[in-house]
């Protein structure tokens, strides 16, 4: 009885989502509408669309709380980052920098090309339950189409001048895109210490696809409160809550 009532409700939600295209923002033209709060918020993503089923059914979802990690001698990540022109877009969910070709990471004998990086406020991963002011995700793809995402936690502290070029070109409105005659280098945005947490996870946004290799750097970088506020004012809160670890093993560099 309760099950069928719930099914009816889910169908109704799906039907409403499809019959009210006015709820789609400019940036959502290519897929069902989802958000970080309200009736299309994270706890409902799995029911918004069949394509998003992994968000509720998946057993290896991201982000997670990084705690009780097993220390191990993990392979070193080689960052082969070159500079890129600044191509930056506000897609309605995050501010994303699309990176020029030619940069990659090498880890465990596999090369993954840097495609883009983007930001979440506050952080998506937590460390022993502690949340950070922001988190940057550097998204890489290998030639088999597999993803490796490097997470960089941002703690409040000194102003971080390495981010100045990006911060002075943040697109404030959803759908706004800028191509700037300026050079950036992702290598300057990450911490110099290379220790990391790693686990098998997912995209943290719909469709929550799994088989993502997660590498979250142990050392945070700093940004001033004003810098963190500046991007938060544009994106508002855009972090998915932490997901259960289930049967997975979380490893950390010794
Ligand atoms: Zn992300």
Count the helices. How many?
5
User: Into which percentage range does the β-strand content fall?
Assistant: 25-35%
CATH fold descriptor = Carbonic Anhydrase II
Number of domains: 1
**Whole-number radius of gyration?**
19 Å
Order of helices and strands: HHHEEEEEEEEEEHEEEEHE
Query: Describe the biggest sheet?
Result: 13 strands, mixed
Shape: globular
Given helix and strand content, the structural type is: alpha+beta
Distance between the termini: 52 Å
Q: What is the averaged pLDDT score? A: 90
Number of separate strands: 15
Search tags:
about 250 residues; alpha+beta; 13-stranded mixed beta sheet; two-stranded parallel ribbon; globular; disordered N terminus; binds zinc ion
């Amino acid at each position: 009885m309760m099950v069928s009532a719930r099914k009816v409700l889910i169908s109704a939600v799906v039907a409403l989502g499809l019959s009210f295209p006015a709820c789609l923002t400019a940036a959502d033209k290519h897929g069902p509408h989802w958000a970080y709060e309200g009736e299309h918020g994270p706890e409902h993503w799995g029911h918004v669309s069949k394509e998003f089923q992994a968000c509720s059914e998946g057993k290896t979802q991201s982000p997670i709380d990084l705690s009780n990690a097993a220390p191990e001698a993990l392979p070193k990540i080689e960052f082969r980052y070159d500079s890129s022109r600044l191509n930056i877009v506000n897609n309605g969910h995050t501010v994303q920098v699309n990176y020029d070709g030619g940069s990659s990471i090498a880890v465990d004998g596999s090369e993954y090309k840097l495609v883009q990086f983007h930001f979440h406020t506050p952080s998506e991963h937590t460390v022993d339950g502690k949340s950070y002011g922001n988190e940057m995700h550097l998204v890489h793809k290998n030639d088999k189409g597999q993803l490796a995402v490097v997470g960089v936690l941002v703690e409040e502290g000194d102003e971080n001048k390495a981010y100045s070029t990006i911060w002075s070109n943040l697109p404030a409105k959803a759908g706004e895109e800028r191509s700037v005659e300026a050079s950036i280098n992702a290598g300057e945005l990450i911490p110099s210490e290379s220790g990391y947490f790693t686990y098998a996870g997912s995209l943290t946004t719909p469709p929550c696809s799994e088989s993502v290799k997660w590498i979250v750097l142990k050392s945070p970088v700093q940004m001033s409160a004003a810098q963190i506020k500046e991007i938060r004012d544009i994106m508002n809160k855009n972090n998915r809550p932490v997901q259960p670890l289930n049967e997975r093993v979380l490893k950390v560099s010794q």
